[in-house]
Every structure is written in C-alpha cells, then in structure tokens.
C-alpha cells in the first residue's frame, strides 16, 4: 500500500493517465511481446495498487500479468523485490516468483507500461483458526526470514513511524479529507497515538530490521494441494520480524494468544523469535490503520478506487475511523500478547 511517488500527490502525468485507462488489447499485446500466444481470455484479478490480470495462453496454462503503477517503485526497487523472491524460491520456500523473459529479465516494458508475468495458481484462503495451517505458515515464515536476514534492501525503505504515521496524518489533514468538524479530534488523537508508538519503538530499539514480505495478511496466502503459497511481495521492505506475523492474528485477546502460540510453534522449529517484538504489535496495527486511510486518499482520483471503496470519504467513514483509532489508543495501554516460548 505504500506510495513512493516522484510527483506531487495532486498531479497526474501522461503515464498515470494511460495506466488508469489500460485497455485489454494493450494487456494482451504486452504479454505477446514476450513470445506468448494469448488466446483472448482475460480476467481482472482483485488488486488495486497495481493492475493484475489472468491471461489465457494458447495450448499452455494461463499466466498472471501484473502491471505496475507508475511512480510508486523505481525499476531498481522492483528488481530488488524480484531478486528477493528468486532467492526464496531457490531455497524451496513456497512463494509466487516472476517468470523470466527471453533474456532472463523479470521486469518488462511495453510502451510506457512496466509489467511482470507470474504462474497462475489455484487454491483457497488459509484457515487461520486451524492450528496445522498456522504451524505450517510459521515454519515457512521462519525459513523466509532466515534467507531475508542475510542482507537488507538497498532500494526499498525501512518501515517507519514517519512514513506510515506522520506522513499519512499530514496528507489527510493538508488535503482536506477529514471533515472540518472532525479535524481537531483527528489531529489531537493522531498526535497522542504517535507519541505512544514512538515510545514503543524506543522500548524495542534493539530489535533487528530485516527484509520482510511486508503485507502478509490472509489474502496474500493461497492454500494449495501442497500447503501454503505466499503471494505478492510488492510491499517488501526492511522491518521487524513481527510485521510478517501480526496480520495473521485477529479477534479477542484470548483468541489471538492461542493463534500466536500455533504460529510460533512452527516458527521456532527453524528460527528463534524474540518475544520483545510482541511489544510492537499494536503499534504496527495502529500505523497500518493510519496508512491505509491515507493510501485510499492518495489514490482517490483513480476511478477504480471510488468504485471499489464507495464507503470511503463520507462523514460516517471518518467518524468510524476516529473511533477505531481511539480503540487502538486503549490497546496500546494494554500489556503485549503473552507467549511462552
């Protein structure tokens, strides 16, 4: 969900306009430029930050074509993500890795569009209340982090309070997304939350930042006949290990504690988990909430977003967001989840 635009948020250039109006014939021509014969079948998949399509190929399995949003990542950052995915695949960690083109490259250009091609997998959502599913995910994540810890990203950022918290809040206030009668409530609450979050960061200053998946929620895990398959490393960045764990936990505290035990029982078979990182869970959850609403606001001029998120940017939406942030303030006062490793 992270924006790394080289343009001001309210400015749209020709590449962005062309991307918003990406046409089926352009998609098929781009795929065929790599020597694949498309059979005309095209299905848009559930993605908003990038444009992603299932493309039928003559006498072959279909592929997934991912077209990158302009100005979000540099070519170097995209290639760094692809290289990370390749490293994981070489260690037989189940990730969806981009397919190389005729000259071995994985990032391709067709006219003004950047894109990558992936295998098309079948499967279903993981069952996050199933101990066996969580234990397997824990094992895979530990192995992923063992590879990830060998170096850090150079062209991709480190998860920070500034980007996910401060910048997000400033954008919403400066661009008048918050209704005038709620601005003071939002501003004072956000300022208080950021103080609490920075306090948590100071308490966990010794935690190492490594390469991460970065956005590992249930929608980015596919359960296949062979088990879990990890999808979409588009938000890969440096950060604490627990960032790749906490999004798999939800619900009441007791339920989260039980699911955490399942996840870490698998994780610790391959990598030690530092319980100090549990202090960061609610801080990271709060930052994600702040950043998510700013992401929607930054993308609101893209016609796909009002269609996909019709509830956003209403008065009620902001009232509910402020209420959720107040609940997070209370959560930040609670002790971290318990885990006896």
Mean pLDDT: 94
In the CATH scheme, what's the topology name of the largest domain? Transferase(Phosphotransferase), domain 1
Main structural class: alpha+beta
Number of domains: 2
Note down, in words, how this protein is organized.
The structure is a single chain. This protein is 42% helix and 13% strand. Mean pLDDT is 94; it is low at 1-10. The chain has helices spanning 14-20, 24-32, 75-90, 131-148, 161-174, 183-203, 253-267, 281-298, 304-308, 315-333; strands at residues 38-44, 51-57, 60-67, 108-110, 113-119, 210-212, 221-224, 227-230, 237-239. A hairpin with a 2-residue loop joins β2 (51-57) and β3 (60-67). α4 (131-148) packs across α7. The protein is globular. The protein is built from ten helices and nine strands. The chain is an alpha+beta fold. It has two domains: 14-119, 2-Layer Sandwich (Phosphorylase Kinase, domain 1); 131-333, Transferase(Phosphotransferase) domain 1 (Transferase(Phosphotransferase), domain 1, Orthogonal Bundle). The strands form three sheets. A five-stranded antiparallel beta sheet has the order 1-2-3-5-4, covered by helices on one side. Strands 6-9 form a two-stranded antiparallel ribbon. Strands 7-8 form a two-stranded antiparallel ribbon.
